[in-house]
Amino acid sequence: MAIPHTHPGQPVDIAAAVAAGALSATALFKSRDLEVIRLLIPAGKGLPPHRVPGEITVQCVSGQIEIGLDGESAQLAPGQLLYLTGDAMHSVLAITDACALVTIALQAPSTVL
């Protein structure tokens, strides 16, 4: 079964309550060049170190999250955004129950001559 995605021009409520104990990743839309995912992460849970080929932004919508990158970490509070280059090994941990919006560039940027 295909995951339902948002249609062009359709408003989406990105803030949602975190279900007790369950991490949830919902693909809000995916186009040729871009994918947007809402992560709902209970406190103490997260995503283990992983890579994504495209460039990424992670925006904290609610709660507080920690992004691990190259042995360092950055904490994000609501309204803060973090940019990661493509193929960067990173992890995500919710310090408190959190909602985050992840944007992934699916195509490599074209070279301007």
What is the CATH level 1 assignment of the domain at 27-105?
Mainly Beta
CATH architecture of the domain at 27-105: Sandwich
| Number of helices, where a helix is a run of at least 4 consecutive DSSP H or I residues | 0
- Give the fraction of residues assigned to helices: under 10%
Major beta sheet, specifics?
Answer: 5 strands, antiparallel
The amount of beta strand, in percent, is over 45%
CATH superfamily of the domain at 27-105: Jelly Rolls
Instruction: Please state the overall shape, judged from the principal axes of the Cα atoms.
Output: globular
Low-confidence stretches: none
Structural classification: mainly beta
Q: How many extended strands?
A: 9
What is the topology, as strand order, of the major beta sheet?
1-2-9-4-7
pLDDT averaged residue by residue: 88
State the CATH topology of the domain at 27-105: Jelly Rolls
Radius of gyration: 14 Å
Q: Which descriptors apply to this entry?
A:
single chain; 113 residues; mainly beta; Jelly Rolls; 5-stranded antiparallel beta sheet; 4-stranded antiparallel beta sheet; 9 strands; 0% helix; 48% strand
Can you describe this structure?
The protein is mainly beta and about 110 residues long. It has a domain at about 25-105: Jelly Rolls, CATH 2.60.120.10. The protein has no helices and nine strands. A hairpin with a 3-residue loop joins strand 1 and strand 2 (about 35-40). The termini are far apart.
